[in-house]
């Protein structure tokens, strides 16, 4: 068995994925970095090689929104000659505009990247890791997976499926007996390019709620090595996750963020008097409390 381990990181051109690549390189992993932005990946590779000359970095540009686009990544995961020891299954996106107003294709593309790609890569990794008797898989989900945190959106559901799929595999007897570890990493608001790409203004998230990508990655890898199946970095998000998971479903929308209620005609998010509940995503609907009673916003369970 080679002493040098290899990590494959999707969404490595930015945010949490880039932080994971840097951290795993510092731990001595060779890297396979995946995203669409080939230049961004090459810049990352040059930076990593500059800091850690012994680390090898393979740049693997791929669009994870289609099965054909994912095929080279699947091939790389299944290649036996240089096996992948850690899959950091991370690439994803959000839409800050309501699903009811977005095109159907845009929503399906989100589900392809956030959910189908992660499931496909995880299942392929398990196929090669289980017989090998070792391997780690980190599936990046979200606190939004814990309950209806984003309403009028497929983002929460896309991450909920990743959480459920991770737990289904993490607790599977065949997986545990093999020594392979699977974990869902569920961050809260993390300073990355996610919001800008989703057209969600960063200002709606109060400063105390932000996590750094480095902290999310560090906590996630520590939890993986402790054998956790689900990692929620930071105590405040563990509390929010607990509430979203255990609050009666009828009450959960009080903690939720209704994208349709806050998008203006141009699709841009506007929060009257700041964000509802003074929070960011998942912050509640109190900004429109007056309309709730009149039935303008009502969630039936
Ligand atoms: N930031 C947050 O507040 C937060 C909170 C909870 C969970 N998360 C999750 O964390 C993960 C990483 O997001 P981030 O915050 O780091 O966002 P980010 O800075 O926008 O990074 C997203 C990454 O995903 C890649 N990606 C997007 N679409 C892709 C596609 N079709 N094919 C291949 N790669 C694609 C992007 O690369 P290219 O554009 O180069 O392809 C980029 O590297 C996501 O799964 C997200 O749901 C984020």
Structure, described:
The chain is α/β, with parallel strands linked by helices. 43% of the residues lie in helices and 13% in strands. It has helices spanning 15-26, 38-51, 67-78, 104-132, 155-170, 173-178, 194-198, 213-225, 235-246, 259-262, 289-293; strands spanning 6-10, 30-35, 57-61, 86-89, 136-140, 150-151, 181-185, 190-191, 211-212, 230-231, 257-258. It has a 7-stranded parallel sheet, with helices on both faces. α1 crosses α8 and α4 (104-132) runs parallel beside α5 (155-170). The longest helix is centred in the middle third of the chain and has 29 residues, at 104-132. It is globular, with a radius of gyration of 19 Å. The model is unreliable at 272-301 (pLDDT under 50). Bound molecules: NADP nicotinamide-adenine-dinucleotide phosphate. Residues 11, 13-17, 35-37, 40, 63-65, 90-93, 113-114, 140, 142, 187, 189-190, 192-194, 197 line the site of NADP nicotinamide-adenine-dinucleotide phosphate (NAP).
Q: What is the CATH homology-level superfamily?
A: NAD(P)-binding Rossmann-like Domain
The radius of gyration is: 19 Å
| Hetero groups | NADP nicotinamide-adenine-dinucleotide phosphate
Overall average residue pLDDT: 88
The end-to-end distance, rounded to whole angstroms, is 53 Å
Quick one: biggest sheet?
7 strands, parallel
CATH class: Alpha Beta
Question: Main sheet: which strands, in order across?
Answer: 3-2-1-4-5-7-10
β-strand percent reads 5-15%
* Percentage of residues in helical conformation: 40-55%
Q: What would the CATH topology be?
A: Rossmann fold
Q: Could you list the spans in which at least 5 consecutive residues all have pLDDT below 50? A: 272-301
Number of structural domains: 1
Structural class: alpha/beta
Total strand segments: 11
Quickly count the helices. 11
